[in-house]
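Batch job 17 of 40 flagged for manual review because the log was empty.
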Amino acid sequence: MTAHPLILAARRTAVAPRGGAFRALQADELAAPVIEALLLDSGVERASVDHVIFGNALYGGGNPARLAALRAGLPDCVPALTLDTQCCSGLDAILMASHLVRSGAARCVIAGGMESYSRAPIRMHRPATSKEEPVAYDRPSFAPFPERDPDLTVAAADLAAE
């Protein structure tokens, strides 16, 4: 029997510009109160959460979903996963949560996206030798071919025109 996923509650943080009201907060610090509000809104107990899945494209590594889950007071035994599919990360997290519920592998999953542009790491390509300097970059490549790796605003404009 296939379970039908339901959204019991939905929340998000306010949006602030880079360097604005949330400039001192990491992504997990922004996400933790959202998790707490979701639990309150839905009436779900912390111990009833089977999994936490968040998409994040800017973090420098590690597992910010795990940090957010622990900050929100979820039990240590609740697994958390961070996905990085860039702009699709938050939606992919929700899709994965849906699949877990449909398959019967989970009954309650907290899923969504999390970012803190103000606290995103500075990205540098490591030099190949000690005589070279690191080279900064704004975003990772989405494709190995420059003609298939447009800037986000260019890609959005092209898609809108199409």
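Reviewer: the log was empty due to a logging misconfiguration, but the result itself is present. The beta strands are 51-55, 80-83, 109-113, 124-125, 135-136. Unflagging and moving on to job 18.
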